[in-house]
Each structure stands twice: as C-alpha cells, then as structure tokens.
Amino acid sequence: MTTPLLEMRNIRAGYGIIDVLHGVDLVLEPGSVLALLGPNGAGKSTTLAVASGQIQPSGGQLLIAGREVNGAKPDALARAGVCLVPEGRGVFPNLTVAENIRMMTFSGTSYGEVADKAYELFPRLGERRRQLAGTLSGGEQQMLAMARAMATDPALLMLDELSMGLAPIIVEELYSQVAKLAEGGLSILIVEQFAQTVLGVADRAAIMLHGRITRTGPPSEIAEELTAAYLGIDSGGH
Amino acid sequence: MTDETSPRLQEFQAQVDDLRLSGGKANPERMAIRGAIALFVIAVALGLAAYFNSTSLDDARDQNEMIILALVAVVLALGSVGLFVRASMTRYFRYWLVRLVYEDRANTDRLIEAIREDD
Q: CA angle A77-A81-A83, nearest 5°?
C-alpha cells in the first residue's frame, strides 16, 4: 500500500472568525490526478491554501508524504516541491514573460534551465518572452503560470480554476498538457467549478459542498452526481 | 500511478522529512489578543490584591512587599497593552497589505486595458 502524497484528516480552517472548512477528508495518491469540484464558495480554494501552507488549519491533520506538516511555512513547502498555481494565474502583469520565469530561480536553479523547461512545455511563451505578461491572452497567462510552476520540478502540483475565463479550445489545450504531466508521474490536485474537461484527465474526483467533501469516487460516477450537487439536491446517501 | 521509489518522490519525501515545523497556529493574532486580555485581568487582580493586603499591614517591610507586587502588576498590565496593540496592528496591516496588493493588481489591469484600447 502506497503512502498518500497528500492527505487531509478532518481539516478545519477559515479566515479570522469565519470558518470555511468544516472537517475536510481528502487523499491524493502519488502519481495520480484528483479533481476537486464544487460550486463557488464551497471551500475549494481554501483547501488548496491549507495544503500549500498559506492558511494554518485550526483543527485536523495535514499530511504530506506521510508526515504531519501542520505549521509548515508555505515557502518551505514550496521549496520541498509543493506548488500552487492560484486562481487568477498569479503572474506578475508588469513583468515580461522572461522576467516572470526568472522569478522561479529562487530554488537555486539557473535561469537557463528554468527557461528551457518553460519554453519546452509551452513553445508559444518562447516567442513572447519579451512581452509584458499582462498583455498576454488569458490562455497564455495560464500557460505562463503553469510553465513557472513546472520549472521548479514540483512533486505535487495544485491548480486552482485552470479554466476560469478561458475559451473551451484553450481549456482543452491546457488540459492536454496536464494529461501529459500526469502521464509523467506528477501528482496533481485540480480545483474546478466546471467539470467536464477535468474529469477527462482525473483518476479520481471529489465533490465539495459547504466546506465538506460530500462524495469521492471515479470520475464517471462523480459526473453523474455533479448536477445534483450543484443544484443542492441530495443525491442520496453520501 | 507512479512507483513510490521514483527518485523525485524519494527526494520529495526526504525534503518533507527535513521540514522544520514552526507549530504555527490558525489566526495567531486572535490568540495573542486573548492572551493580552487575560494578562491584563491578571494584572488588575494582582494590583487590587496588593492594595487590599497592604491596608491591613503595619510593618513597613511587609508593605514594601506589597508595593513590589503592585509594581509587578503594573509591568504585567503594560506588557499586556503592548501585546494587544501589537496583535491588533499586525491584523490591521495584514488586511491593509492585501488591499494594496489587490488595488495594485487592479490598477495594472486597467493600464493594460487602456494600452490595448490605444492599439
């Protein structure tokens, strides 16, 4: 039996006096893709913030590679290989593509190495290396965010709302890259509101509602229950 | 799924094992504010106890002990006020920083939008 790469046990967390997660249980096996789905305000992004160390849980256990890491600092987790691509892409809009990629040399990797990886993954970025990141299209900004993430050679990649505000054809292109990364053995946790594309690349999926995981299972089973979950209808017994 | 013995996974495991955990807590400012209030209550209680005890003492040496106790209460009260102010300001400045980051980002988006319109 393999040790889960990421495991949450009864995690509770929130912002100030507002609790958002009310006991989240989640398991991501090494080398697998887990899709975390749910409507706006369900607590998906907060779950990622807890997993990346940005928010400390007020209760429960956060385990990474089998070790409880409650209290670990986000920069320490990032250096170890836990990488979050936040909602809204998180690129520096007033820096060029090349400068954005240079920011990922924090771990000691040379710029050349980081840039080679990024441009290999998304050749379009190489053509636009002198362009301001803010002037890229939404899809290209998302590519830049993913390229920056991959340049650090993460062991656990977390993607928050990869498809937000993008045309379906761009979303498919991005998810084809995600599928390639998954085939390479990277463990990926993807948060999405709109599920169809992500379910095509996920090994398992979970539905989150009101700060709790209400259902976990294979994507084919989850797809059937999604509509009910989004409409707030009890699909029975979960 | 990948083999758990893959080199990257082993490296990751080792790095996670080496992580230093600060034992950070959720919402540390709230805990500090509660601690400061508790400390202030203790300080006031200590000060009052010193005052009422001193009134029944005739010996100046015993009264001196109560004066020292009262001074300790004053120091505790000042410390608790400092802790309270520090935690409150930290919380305030954190939200302020988030707001600045958000506004800076929104401003950059507006500039870029304007540049696009000019093109």
A: 80
Helix and strand totals (H; E) in chain B: 3, 0
| Cβ contacts from A onto B, under 8 A | 92
User: Would the CB atoms of B12 and A80 count as touching at under 8 Å?
Assistant: yes
Contact flag A56-B26 (C-beta cutoff 8 Å)? yes
Pick the closest to residue A143 from A115, A158, A124, A156 (CA basis): A124
Whether residues B21 and A14 touch (CB distance < 8 A) is answered with no
Burial level of A232, CB count in 10 A (0-12/13-18/19+)?
exposed
Indicate which of A46, A63, A70 best probes the interface with B, i.e. most B CBs within 10 Å of its own CB: A70
Chain B partners within 8 Å of A17 (Cβ) = 30
CB A207 within 8 A of CB A226: yes
Share in percent of chain A as helix, strand, coil (round to 5)? 40, 25, 35
CB half-sphere exposure, A135, CA atoms < 13 A:
17
- What strands lie across the sheet with A187-192, from one edge to the other? A82-85, A156-160, A187-192, A33-37, A204-209, A212-217
List of residues 6+ apart from A9 with CB closer than 8 A: A25, A60, A61, A62, A63
Taking the C-alpha atoms of residue A5 and residue A104, their distance in angstroms, rounded to an integer, is: 23
ipTM over 0.85: no
* Nearest Cα to Cα of residue A188 among A225, A151, A216, A146: A146
Per-residue pLDDT of chain A in tens (238 residues, 90 and over written 9): 688 999 999 999 988 778 899 999 999 999 899 999 988 889 999 999 999 999 999 899 999 999 999 988 888 898 889 999 988 777 888 899 999 999 888 777 888 888 998 898 899 999 999 999 988 888 899 999 999 888 888 999 999 998 888 888 888 888 998 998 888 889 999 999 867 788 889 999 999 989 999 999 999 888 877 777 666 655 544 4
Q: Which residues of B touch A70 (CB under 8 A)?
A: 21, 23-24
Q: List the structure tokens of A127.
A: 């053509």
pTM over cut 0.80: no
Question: Between chains, do A155 and B24 touch, taking CB under 8 Å as contact?
Answer: no
- State whether residue A182 sits within 8 Å of chain B by CB: no
